[in-house]
Protein backbone atom coordinates (compact mmCIF):
# COMPACT_ATOMS: atom_id res chain seq x y z
CA UNK A 1 0.00 0.00 0.00
CA UNK A 2 1.24 3.50 -0.92
CA UNK A 3 0.55 5.77 2.11
CA UNK A 4 0.52 8.83 -0.19
CA UNK A 5 -2.58 7.37 -1.86
CA UNK A 6 -6.04 7.77 -0.35
CA UNK A 7 -7.52 5.31 -2.87
CA UNK A 8 -5.84 2.37 -4.55
CA UNK A 9 -7.12 -0.48 -6.69
CA UNK A 10 -5.21 -3.65 -7.50
CA UNK A 11 -6.15 -5.55 -10.65
CA UNK A 12 -9.76 -4.36 -10.34
CA UNK A 13 -11.93 -6.37 -12.74
CA UNK A 14 -15.64 -6.50 -13.58
CA UNK A 15 -17.17 -8.95 -16.04
CA UNK A 16 -20.78 -9.03 -17.26
CA UNK A 17 -21.62 -12.44 -18.75
CA UNK A 18 -18.24 -12.78 -20.44
CA UNK A 19 -17.84 -9.07 -21.34
CA UNK A 20 -14.96 -7.47 -19.44
CA UNK A 21 -16.03 -3.91 -18.60
CA UNK A 22 -13.11 -3.17 -16.25
CA UNK A 23 -9.92 -5.13 -16.87
CA UNK A 24 -7.24 -5.40 -14.14
CA UNK A 25 -7.17 -1.66 -13.40
CA UNK A 26 -4.47 -0.43 -10.99
CA UNK A 27 -5.58 3.05 -9.91
CA UNK A 28 -3.70 5.21 -7.39
CA UNK A 29 -5.27 8.47 -6.28
CA UNK A 30 -2.90 10.66 -4.26
CA UNK A 31 -4.16 12.60 -1.25
CA UNK A 32 -5.01 16.25 -1.83
CA UNK A 33 -5.06 16.01 -5.64
CA UNK A 34 -7.62 16.23 -8.44
CA UNK A 35 -7.49 12.97 -10.40
CA UNK A 36 -9.45 12.66 -13.66
CA UNK A 37 -10.64 9.42 -15.20
CA UNK A 38 -11.12 9.87 -18.94
CA UNK A 39 -11.57 7.72 -22.03
CA UNK A 40 -13.74 7.21 -25.11
CA UNK A 41 -17.38 6.14 -24.70
CA UNK A 42 -17.58 2.56 -23.47
CA UNK A 43 -14.11 2.72 -21.90
CA UNK A 44 -15.39 1.54 -18.51
CA UNK A 45 -15.27 4.84 -16.58
CA UNK A 46 -18.78 4.65 -15.09
CA UNK A 47 -18.41 0.94 -14.27
CA UNK A 48 -15.15 1.78 -12.51
CA UNK A 49 -16.94 4.51 -10.49
CA UNK A 50 -19.73 2.05 -9.63
CA UNK A 51 -17.13 -0.42 -8.34
CA UNK A 52 -15.41 2.23 -6.22
CA UNK A 53 -18.71 3.32 -4.64
CA UNK A 54 -19.82 -0.32 -4.22
CA UNK A 55 -22.92 -0.06 -6.44
CA UNK A 56 -21.29 -2.99 -8.22
CA UNK A 57 -19.21 -5.81 -6.75
CA UNK A 58 -15.93 -6.56 -8.54
CA UNK A 59 -15.44 -9.93 -10.21
CA UNK A 60 -11.88 -9.89 -8.90
CA UNK A 61 -9.24 -7.49 -7.58
CA UNK A 62 -9.10 -5.24 -4.51
CA UNK A 63 -10.00 -1.68 -3.48
CA UNK A 64 -8.21 0.11 -0.63
CA UNK A 65 -9.33 3.40 0.92
CA UNK A 66 -7.20 5.17 3.52
CA UNK A 67 -5.18 1.99 3.98
CA UNK A 68 -8.24 -0.24 4.57
CA UNK A 69 -9.46 -3.00 2.26
CA UNK A 70 -13.02 -1.92 1.33
CA UNK A 71 -13.55 -4.50 -1.45
CA UNK A 72 -16.43 -6.21 0.40
CA UNK A 73 -17.89 -3.13 2.13
CA UNK A 74 -21.45 -1.93 1.47
CA UNK A 75 -22.12 1.53 -0.06
CA UNK A 76 -23.37 2.97 3.26
CA UNK A 77 -20.24 1.78 5.06
CA UNK A 78 -17.83 3.47 2.67
CA UNK A 79 -19.95 6.64 2.65
CA UNK A 80 -19.51 6.76 6.44
CA UNK A 81 -15.75 6.35 5.91
CA UNK A 82 -15.77 9.47 3.73
CA UNK A 83 -16.14 8.27 0.11
CA UNK A 84 -18.97 10.45 -1.24
CA UNK A 85 -20.23 10.46 -4.81
CA UNK A 86 -21.98 13.24 -6.71
CA UNK A 87 -24.13 11.84 -9.50
CA UNK A 88 -24.13 12.52 -13.23
CA UNK A 89 -27.77 13.64 -13.11
CA UNK A 90 -28.42 16.49 -10.71
CA UNK A 91 -29.81 14.99 -7.49
CA UNK A 92 -31.46 17.71 -5.44
CA UNK A 93 -34.90 17.99 -3.83
CA UNK A 94 -36.56 20.46 -6.25
CA UNK A 95 -39.29 21.73 -3.91
CA UNK A 96 -37.10 22.27 -0.87
CA UNK A 97 -35.19 25.52 -0.61
CA UNK A 98 -31.49 25.63 -1.39
CA UNK A 99 -30.79 25.91 2.37
CA UNK A 100 -33.11 23.00 3.20
CA UNK A 101 -31.35 20.77 0.64
CA UNK A 102 -28.02 21.27 2.39
CA UNK A 103 -29.66 20.86 5.80
CA UNK A 104 -31.07 17.45 4.80
CA UNK A 105 -27.54 16.37 3.83
CA UNK A 106 -26.20 17.67 7.17
CA UNK A 107 -28.84 15.63 9.03
CA UNK A 108 -27.15 12.48 7.79
CA UNK A 109 -24.18 13.42 9.97
CA UNK A 110 -26.40 13.52 13.10
CA UNK A 111 -27.66 10.64 15.20
CA UNK A 112 -31.17 12.03 14.52
CA UNK A 113 -30.70 11.37 10.82
CA UNK A 114 -33.89 11.84 8.80
CA UNK A 115 -36.21 12.53 11.74
CA UNK A 116 -38.47 14.54 9.47
CA UNK A 117 -41.25 14.56 12.07
CA UNK A 118 -39.14 16.73 14.38
CA UNK A 119 -40.10 20.40 14.53
CA UNK A 120 -38.23 22.64 12.14
CA UNK A 121 -36.85 24.54 15.15
CA UNK A 122 -34.78 21.48 16.03
CA UNK A 123 -32.96 21.85 12.71
CA UNK A 124 -32.13 25.55 13.09
CA UNK A 125 -28.80 24.59 14.69
CA UNK A 126 -27.72 23.27 11.28
CA UNK A 127 -28.41 26.56 9.48
CA UNK A 128 -25.05 28.19 10.25
CA UNK A 129 -23.10 25.23 8.84
CA UNK A 130 -25.47 25.02 5.85
CA UNK A 131 -24.86 28.70 5.08
CA UNK A 132 -21.09 28.15 5.33
CA UNK A 133 -21.35 25.39 2.74
CA UNK A 134 -23.53 27.54 0.47
CA UNK A 135 -20.92 30.32 0.73
CA UNK A 136 -18.26 27.80 -0.29
CA UNK A 137 -20.13 27.15 -3.55
CA UNK A 138 -21.24 30.78 -4.06
CA UNK A 139 -24.94 30.07 -3.47
CA UNK A 140 -25.60 31.86 -0.18
CA UNK A 141 -27.67 34.56 -1.93
CA UNK A 142 -30.02 31.81 -3.22
CA UNK A 143 -30.56 30.16 0.21
CA UNK A 144 -34.31 30.92 0.38
CA UNK A 145 -35.03 29.99 -3.25
CA UNK A 146 -36.66 26.66 -4.12
CA UNK A 147 -34.02 24.46 -5.76
CA UNK A 148 -36.27 23.97 -8.82
CA UNK A 149 -35.73 27.65 -9.68
CA UNK A 150 -31.94 27.40 -9.91
CA UNK A 151 -30.17 27.29 -13.29
CA UNK A 152 -28.74 23.90 -14.27
CA UNK A 153 -25.17 24.94 -13.40
CA UNK A 154 -26.23 26.26 -9.99
CA UNK A 155 -28.14 23.02 -9.31
CA UNK A 156 -24.87 21.19 -9.84
CA UNK A 157 -23.16 23.65 -7.46
CA UNK A 158 -25.90 22.86 -4.90
CA UNK A 159 -25.27 19.16 -5.41
CA UNK A 160 -21.58 19.75 -4.66
CA UNK A 161 -22.62 21.62 -1.48
CA UNK A 162 -24.76 18.65 -0.37
CA UNK A 163 -21.81 16.35 -1.13
CA UNK A 164 -19.57 18.58 1.01
CA UNK A 165 -22.15 18.38 3.81
CA UNK A 166 -21.32 14.67 4.07
CA UNK A 167 -17.77 15.68 5.04
CA UNK A 168 -16.01 13.69 2.31
CA UNK A 169 -12.37 12.70 2.45
CA UNK A 170 -12.71 11.67 -1.20
CA UNK A 171 -15.24 13.31 -3.53
CA UNK A 172 -16.22 11.33 -6.61
CA UNK A 173 -17.66 13.63 -9.28
CA UNK A 174 -19.44 11.93 -12.18
CA UNK A 175 -19.45 14.19 -15.29
CA UNK A 176 -19.77 17.42 -13.23
CA UNK A 177 -20.00 19.72 -16.31
CA UNK A 178 -22.15 17.54 -18.58
CA UNK A 179 -24.83 19.47 -20.49
CA UNK A 180 -23.58 22.91 -19.42
CA UNK A 181 -22.97 26.11 -21.35
CA UNK A 182 -19.54 27.75 -21.21
CA UNK A 183 -20.38 30.09 -18.33
CA UNK A 184 -21.63 27.27 -16.11
CA UNK A 185 -18.70 25.04 -17.09
CA UNK A 186 -16.29 27.74 -15.98
CA UNK A 187 -18.18 28.24 -12.70
CA UNK A 188 -18.07 24.51 -11.89
CA UNK A 189 -14.41 24.24 -12.95
CA UNK A 190 -13.49 27.01 -10.50
CA UNK A 191 -15.69 25.48 -7.83
CA UNK A 192 -14.05 22.04 -8.11
CA UNK A 193 -10.62 23.65 -7.82
CA UNK A 194 -11.77 25.58 -4.74
CA UNK A 195 -13.31 22.63 -2.88
CA UNK A 196 -10.33 20.41 -3.78
CA UNK A 197 -8.00 22.69 -1.81
CA UNK A 198 -8.74 20.72 1.39
CA UNK A 199 -9.78 17.30 0.08
CA UNK A 200 -9.20 14.77 -2.70
CA UNK A 201 -11.30 14.70 -5.87
CA UNK A 202 -11.67 11.85 -8.37
CA UNK A 203 -13.75 12.84 -11.39
CA UNK A 204 -15.04 11.32 -14.61
CA UNK A 205 -15.13 14.14 -17.14
CA UNK A 206 -15.47 14.42 -20.93
CA UNK A 207 -14.62 18.13 -21.21
CA UNK A 208 -10.90 18.21 -21.95
CA UNK A 209 -10.53 21.94 -21.28
CA UNK A 210 -11.76 21.26 -17.71
CA UNK A 211 -9.50 18.22 -17.31
CA UNK A 212 -6.43 19.97 -18.69
CA UNK A 213 -6.86 23.04 -16.50
CA UNK A 214 -7.52 21.47 -13.08
CA UNK A 215 -6.48 17.78 -12.99
CA UNK A 216 -3.13 16.93 -11.38
CA UNK A 217 -3.19 13.37 -12.72
CA UNK A 218 -5.17 11.78 -15.54
CA UNK A 219 -5.90 8.09 -16.02
CA UNK A 220 -7.03 7.15 -19.54
CA UNK A 221 -9.17 4.03 -19.85
CA UNK A 222 -9.81 2.15 -23.10
CA UNK A 223 -11.88 -1.03 -23.33
CA UNK A 224 -11.82 -1.27 -19.54
CA UNK A 225 -8.02 -1.19 -19.21
CA UNK A 226 -5.57 1.58 -18.29
CA UNK A 227 -4.13 3.04 -21.49
CA UNK A 228 -2.02 5.81 -19.96
CA UNK A 229 -1.56 7.77 -16.75
CA UNK A 230 0.18 11.00 -15.83
CA UNK A 231 -0.17 14.79 -16.05
CA UNK A 232 -2.22 16.21 -18.95
CA UNK A 233 0.81 17.57 -20.84
CA UNK A 234 2.29 14.07 -20.96
CA UNK A 235 -0.89 12.05 -21.53
CA UNK A 236 -2.21 14.31 -24.32
CA UNK A 237 0.94 13.66 -26.39
CA UNK A 238 0.81 9.89 -25.94
CA UNK A 239 0.29 8.34 -29.43
CA UNK A 240 -1.93 5.57 -28.02
CA UNK A 241 -4.18 8.14 -26.34
CA UNK A 242 -4.40 10.27 -29.51
CA UNK A 243 -5.35 7.16 -31.49
CA UNK A 244 -8.05 6.26 -28.92
CA UNK A 245 -9.57 9.71 -29.32
CA UNK A 246 -9.95 9.58 -33.10
CA UNK A 247 -12.31 12.15 -34.63
CA UNK A 248 -13.83 15.11 -32.80
CA UNK A 249 -12.65 13.92 -29.39
CA UNK A 250 -9.09 13.90 -30.77
CA UNK A 251 -9.45 17.53 -31.87
CA UNK A 252 -10.79 18.36 -28.42
CA UNK A 253 -7.91 16.56 -26.75
CA UNK A 254 -5.31 18.46 -28.77
CA UNK A 255 -7.13 21.78 -28.64
CA UNK A 256 -7.71 21.95 -24.89
CA UNK A 257 -6.00 24.70 -22.95
Topology:
Blueprint: E1 5-16, E2 19-25, E3 28-30, E4 34-38, H1 45-52, E5 60-65, E6 68-69, H2 75-81, E7 83-86, H3 98-107, H4 127-136, H5 152-165, E8 170-174, H6 182-195, E9 200-204, H7 208-214, E10 217-222, E11 225-230, H8 232-235, H9 239-244, H10 248-255
Parallel strand pairs: 4-9, 4-10, 7-8, 8-9
Antiparallel strand pairs: 1-2, 1-3, 1-5, 5-6, 10-11
Class by alpha and beta content = alpha/beta
The value of Rg in angstroms is 19 Å
Q: Name the beta content range.
A: 15-25%
Number of helices: 10
Order of strands across the main sheet: 7-8-9-4-10-11
CATH architecture identity of the largest domain? 3-Layer(aba) Sandwich
Tell me the CATH topology of the largest domain.
Rossmann fold
What order do the helices and strands follow?
Answer: EEEEHEEHEHHHEHEHEEHHH
Summarize the structure.
By secondary structure, this protein is of the alpha/beta class. Helices cover 34% and strands 24% of the residues.
List keywords for this structure.
257 residues; alpha/beta; Rossmann fold; 2 domains; six-stranded mixed beta sheet; five-stranded antiparallel beta sheet; 10 helices; 11 strands; 34% helix; 24% strand
Structural summary, described in words:
Helix content is 34%, strand content 24%. The protein is of the alpha/beta class and 257 residues long. It has two domains: 1-82 and 169-257, Rossmann fold; 93-167, no CATH class. The strands form two sheets. It has a six-stranded mixed β-sheet with strand order 7-8-9-4-10-11, sandwiched between helices. Strands 1, 2, 3, 5 and 6 form a five-stranded antiparallel β-sheet that branches. The longest helix is centred in the middle third of the chain and has 14 residues, at 152-165. The two termini are 34 Å apart. 42% of the residues are buried. Residues 247-252 have low confidence and may be disordered.
Amino acid sequence: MDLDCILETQKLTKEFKGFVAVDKVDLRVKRGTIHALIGPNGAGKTTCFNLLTKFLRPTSGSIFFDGQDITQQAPAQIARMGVIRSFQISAVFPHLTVLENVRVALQRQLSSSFHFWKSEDALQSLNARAMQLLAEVDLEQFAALDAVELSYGRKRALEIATTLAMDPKLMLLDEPTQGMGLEDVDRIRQLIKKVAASRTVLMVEHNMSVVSSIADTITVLQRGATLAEGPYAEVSKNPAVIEAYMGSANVELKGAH
